[in-house]
Write a structure and sequence with these properties.
The complex is a heterodimer. Chain A is mostly beta strands. Chain A has one domain: Sandwich (Immunoglobulin-like). Helices cover about 0% and strands about 50% of the residues of chain A. In chain A, strands 2, 4, 5, 6, 9, 10 and 11 form a seven-stranded mixed β-sheet that branches. In chain A, a hairpin with a 2-residue loop joins β5 and β6. By secondary structure, chain B is an all-beta fold. Chain B has a single domain, classed as Immunoglobulin-like. Chain B contains no helices and twelve strands. In chain B, the strands form three sheets. In chain B, strands 2, 5, 6, 10, 11 and 12 form a six-stranded mixed β-sheet that branches. In chain B, strands 3-9-8-7 form a four-stranded antiparallel β-sheet, with no helix packed on it. Classes of the chains: A mainly beta, B mainly beta. At the A-B interface, β5 and β10 of A face β6, β10 and β11 of B.
């Protein structure tokens, strides 16, 4: 069964360092999402791609976060510099199309700890 | 703006007894609603979804949910809990935006514990 792949699964870094997360969506899925899930809360959308284009990055802290999906397939989320408050689970999801009837499939996430 | 409120942060049941996880939503139009489950160290998995068809929605693993517009509720139920149901459950509403680029809005989650 096709799955969304994410790496690394765990990342520990010190504040002010740069970190990067990678996501490989299910093949053929045009829509890709990055979410942040703080412990004890539900996921919150950071950025949404349709193919290689960003369609929503309104909740992305653009002074330190960046995301790209250059060829419309896999994606990278970067934080530079990391802050203590960035400690969270970062989830990637993909969907076949943008229609709400299409299910979003989630990867296992990257758990980030900033010391 | 759309939002969801999960009324219980923790629910504890005995194996074999019914499960009820409560969710209220706020939406200015007929929403799409979902329940997702998150097991430790695993990705979120869709349990079921409501998209304006039948108000009683059946999902995987024996779960079902009923959409009640008059009460703005979408509670998740299961007749008999199993130990493997222990997980975090999220009620989700789809925020309909222009261009069809809908956005999922998650509740804070309900942690279900099942004891023998």
């Amino acid at each position: 069964e096709a799955e969304v792949a994410q790496s690394p699964r765990y990342k520990i870094t010190e504040k002010s360092q740069a970190v990067a997360f990678w996501c490989d969506p299910i093949s053929g899925h045009a829509t890709l999402y990055w979410y942040r899930q703080i412990l004890g809360q539900g996921p919150e959308l950071l950025v949404q791609f349709q193919d290689e284009s960003v369609v929503d990055d309104s909740q992305l802290p653009k002074d330190r976060f960046s995301a790209e999906r250059l060829k419309g397939v896999d994606s990278t989320l970067k934080i530079q510099p990391a802050e203590l408050g960035d400690s969270a689970m970062y989830l990637c999801a993909s969907r076949l199309g943008a229609d709400s009837y299409n299910e979003q499939f989630f990867g296992p996430g990257t758990r980030l700890t900033v010391l | 703006a759309q939002s969801v409120t999960q009324l219980d942060s923790h629910v504890s049941v005995s194996e074999g007894t019914p499960v009820l996880l409560r969710c209220n939503y706020s939406s200015s139009y007929s929403p799409s609603l979902f329940w997702y489950v998150q097991h430790p160290n695993k990705g979120l998995q869709l349990l079921l979804k409501y998209t304006s068809a039948a108000t009683l929605v059946k999902g995987i693993n024996g779960f079902e949910a009923e959409f009640k517009k008059s009460e703005t509720s979408f509670h998740l139920t299961k007749p008999s809990a199993h130990m493997s149901d222990a997980a975090e459950y999220f009620c989700v509403v789809s925020d309909r935006r222009s261009g069809g680029y809908n956005k999922l809005i998650f509740g804070a989650g309900t942690r279900l514990a099942v004891h023998p």
